[in-house]
Amino acid sequence: MLYASNIMIRDVVTARPTDTVVHVARLLSENSISAVPICDDVGTLLGMVSEGDLMRPFIDSNVERRSRWLTLLADGTDLAPAFLEYVRLDRHQVGDLMTTPVITAPESASVTELAEQMVRHHIKRLPIVRDGMLIGIVSRADVIRAIARTPESVIEKT
Question: Which domains does the chain have, with CATH numbers?
């Protein structure tokens, strides 16, 4: 039987909640990954940020709202500081965009259990945790590779 500990990536690219959207976008791009776990300084998993999460501030409704605010500014209307901060997208922190709570699995989860969780929760990756600390990550591709390599080792025997 194969378990998360057998197939997980141990050297996980992570970000901090105070990192900017631009910084995390670069992390994703430079490492050819589509999401990153958000951890505190000691490695406690706090959330996840995906490409979709990073794109949220740029969707039409937010762009239109920023445009209205900028028009008000041009007209000399005073805006609340929170509105002004929102206009500065480069200052957005990923802690504001991260998904919580995070669906996780222990290192003892079987490949079958990992696959079931991914399908049930419609997720592409599972952080592997021990006592709340991130120790690895398993993607759908990792599960598929495990099935392709050793199909007999992922079938739970009853």
Answer: 4-56+93-153 (3.10.580.10)
